[in-house]
Design brief:
Layout (H helix, E strand, L loop, with lengths): L9 H16 L3 H8 L7 H11 L5 H16 L2 H10 L8 E2 L6 E2 L1 H8 L3 H4 L8 H10 L14 H8 L2 H9 L20 H7 L3 H9 L7 H7 L12 H13 L3 H9 L15 H7 L3 H9 L15 H4 L10 H18 L2
Antiparallel strand pairs: 1-2
Helix pairs in contact: 1-2, 1-3, 3-4, 5-8, 6-8, 6-9, 8-10, 9-10, 9-11, 11-12, 13-14, 14-15, 14-16, 16-17, 17-19
């Protein structure tokens, strides 16, 4: 079964149906068979129905409705969404199916991923209004905790993809901040929303979750949250402290960086499991203050990481390829200056 493209065009779909009909009228056996599978008449409505069924929808009207729903969510158009939900309330609760990218996503989960997906969807980097759309969907019945078969809740999705606006709306609606993902899920198996936000470098969501009382169960999560007071560092293994330093660097928690280094945590040693070095992670995440602080503590800007053999400057590329990322530009400038001094150029 074919899947709908990321940004389908209704006119394109109409043309596909017309092309199918014309091919059948010319006697093309494949086109005739496709239409005959749903109707005994070679007419446009039959071709449209055939196309809809091939994409997994019961009718052409349902296919059009699904395309309209995704367009409304992408544009965050509250007035259109209100009209859609007034006429078709199930559009808040029925999963978005048969898409080539998110093959079976709830509407809240889709909104939680929208900002992260903006480049692939051809949308601008700043997408205000995701929270307002999420609130409207919840008011129309979208399940705050997702569906029984889901591997993670919408809040965990928002944490993973970094939409603090959606996360706040979900929390206000009563989302369980301690819910965990499935043991076989991607990301952080059996992890809470806070763990997902920490692992994926979503600092704003970390702050939202900590502010509402999300539980911190490890030194690493405390470092990501920026407060390791009350965590006696001498009691933790060197590996745990290195991981904590990586998290502190990733989330630009400068005081935690200072405390961990003062306690003897090496700045030029990678964590054993993932091979991550604090300076490389700070550079890759576009955290200039972390880069500057780690360099001040003796981090080596020419050191290559054990996994990819890249320097911090080589890591300093925005993940979405956006050359206008200020954080990455600033981090790169700091690293270039230090590298020039060390190599004599």
């Amino acid at each position: 079964m074919p899947y709908l493209p990321v940004r389908p065009d209704l006119d394109q779909l109409r043309h596909q149906a017309k092309d199918l009909l014309h091919a059948a009228q010319r006697g093309d056996p494949d086109a005739v068979a496709r239409i005959r599978a749903v109707s005994g008449r070679l007419m446009l409505s039959s071709a449209q129905l055939a196309l809809a069924r091939e994409y997994g929808f019961a009718s052409w009207a349902r296919l059009k409705l699904e395309v309209e729903r995704r367009d409304i969510l992408n544009s965050r158009d509250l007035s259109r969404l209100t009209r859609l939900l007034a006429e078709h309330p199930d559009m808040a609760t029925v999963k978005m199916e048969h898409w080539c990218d998110h093959k079976c996503a709830g509407t809240l989960g889709y909104m939680a991923m929208l900002r992260f997906d903006h480049g692939r969807l051809g949308l601008p980097g700043q997408l205000p209004g995701t929270g307002a759309v999420a609130r409207a969907l919840i008011e129309a019945g979208a399940p705050v905790e997702g569906y029984p078969e889901d591997t993670e809740t919408p809040l965990i999705t928002a944490a993973s993809y970094g939409d603090a606006e959606v996360a706040r709306v979900l929390i206000e609606a009563g989302a369980d901040i301690e819910a965990v993902s499935a043991p076989d899920s991607g990301g952080v198996p059996s992890g809470t929303a806070l763990q997902h936000a920490a692992v994926f470098g979503m600092t704003e969501v970390v702050d939202v979750l900590v502010a509402v009382g999300a539980k911190i169960h490890s030194l690493e999560m405390a470092a990501a949250a920026g407060d390791i007071t009350g965590w006696p560092l001498a009691r933790f293994t060197l590996e745990s402290r290195i991981r904590a330093l990586v998290f502190a660097a990733d989330h630009q928690r400068l005081e935690a960086i200072d405390q961990l280094v003062t306690a003897g945590t090496p700045v030029n040693q990678a964590d054993a499991e993932w091979g991550r070095l604090p300076l490389h992670v700070a550079a890759g995440s576009g955290r200039p203050a972390s880069v500057r602080r780690l360099l001040g503590h003796g981090a080596d800007p020419n050191l290559r990481d054990p996994r990819h053999h890249r320097t911090p400057l080589e890591e300093c590329q925005p993940p979405d390829g956006n050359p206008d990322s200020p954080g990455h530009q600033q981090a790169a400038a700091i690293l270039r200056a230090v590298t020039r001094k060390q190599d004599g150029s």
